[in-house]
Amino acid sequence: MIKRAKGVTISQVAEAAGVARSSVSRAFTRPDMLSPETVERIMKAAEALGYVPNHTARALSTGRHGNVGLIVPDIANPFFPPMIRAAQLEADRSDFCIFLGNTEENPKQEDKLVGRFAGQVEGLVLASSRLSDERIRAHAGKLPLVLINRDLDGIPRVLIDSGSGVHEAVEHLAKLGHRKIVYVSGPSTSWSNKQRRSAVRAAASSLGIEAETVPAVLPSYNSGRNAVGAILATGATAAIAFDDLTAQGVLAGLAEKHVSVPGDFSLIGCDDVLGAVTYPALTSVSNRSMEAGRVAVSLLLDMLQSRAIRDVRYVLETHLVVRNTTAALR
């Protein structure tokens, strides 16, 4: 049995495991570059010796901190926690930690967080960024950056294509006999909002039905609830909301006005994070947030390893999940 000792070095672990020092380093930073058997042998030797990687020393000697940042616009929105968890799991596979930032839908706060993180992380993932194109490009020029749900040429990005699912949603409503629908919009700076609004308009035009937009400003329960008066004033018989959180608020507001769903009005959400827990169960466009978080961190770690920036555009398709808030027009 190998005895534990104080001040164990990477060389001692390498000797005990019968591998090169570089292999020990890779076992803790990029285990995917080694065979599972080699990683297991190194980890067993390190545990027996009591070896713990010194991330501070690594940062001083290599400029690498072993941290990456993930910044989201609203951590309370149920769309983001699955993405955060998947990103953390992917980072942990390569012995990286995630620094998490929450901007409260405020571009100034996002800009501030990016600046604060820059000296502490090796790269950043910006999810649903509310920054201008110019500010994103400025930050991308200073450190490795991957975007989720923001389509900028030259910057690696992961895009959840809700347009395909939204087109299905409009087709579904048209088949049920709805001739006038409403899109309850999200933040004006949101790429997903622009994509979904365009998809509603394009699908409605191709199907010969009328579509209007009612602003909800922020993706929240209260915004959806407060938008109900404007929704009903359009004379529409169905609505597609920017996200499930907004749709949940619309559902509550309709109930307060004694409008039956789906008897008198049909409602569809996006992201499918609350569909199974609302009453009635919400018809919604599917959600790929977990996969987006995993892929974005994987792209970022590849950039850090190769020190090269590739113009990657990774697209995740969506589809409509039909439940109980849509029905044929009576």
UniProtKB/TrEMBL annotation:
Q: What keywords tag this UniProt record?
A: DNA-binding, Transcription, Transcription regulation
Coiled-coil-forming residues are none
Q: Which SUPFAM superfamilies match?
A: lambda repressor-like DNA-binding domains (SSF47413), Periplasmic binding protein-like I (SSF53822)
Q: Name one GO molecular function term.
A: DNA binding
Q: Which InterPro entries match?
A: Cro/C1-type_HTH, HTH_LacI, LacI/GalR-like_sensor, Lambda_DNA-bd_dom_sf, Peripla_BP_I
| Domain HTH cro/C1-type as annotated: residue spans | 5-52
Pfam families from the UniProt entry: LacI, Peripla_BP_3
Q: Which Gene3D superfamilies match?
A: 3.40.50.2300, lambda repressor-like DNA-binding domains (1.10.260.40)
**Which segments constitute the HTH lacI-type domain?**
8-62
What protein name applies here?
LacI family DNA-binding transcriptional regulator
What is the species listed in this Swiss-Prot or TrEMBL entry?
Neorhizobium phenanthreniclasticum
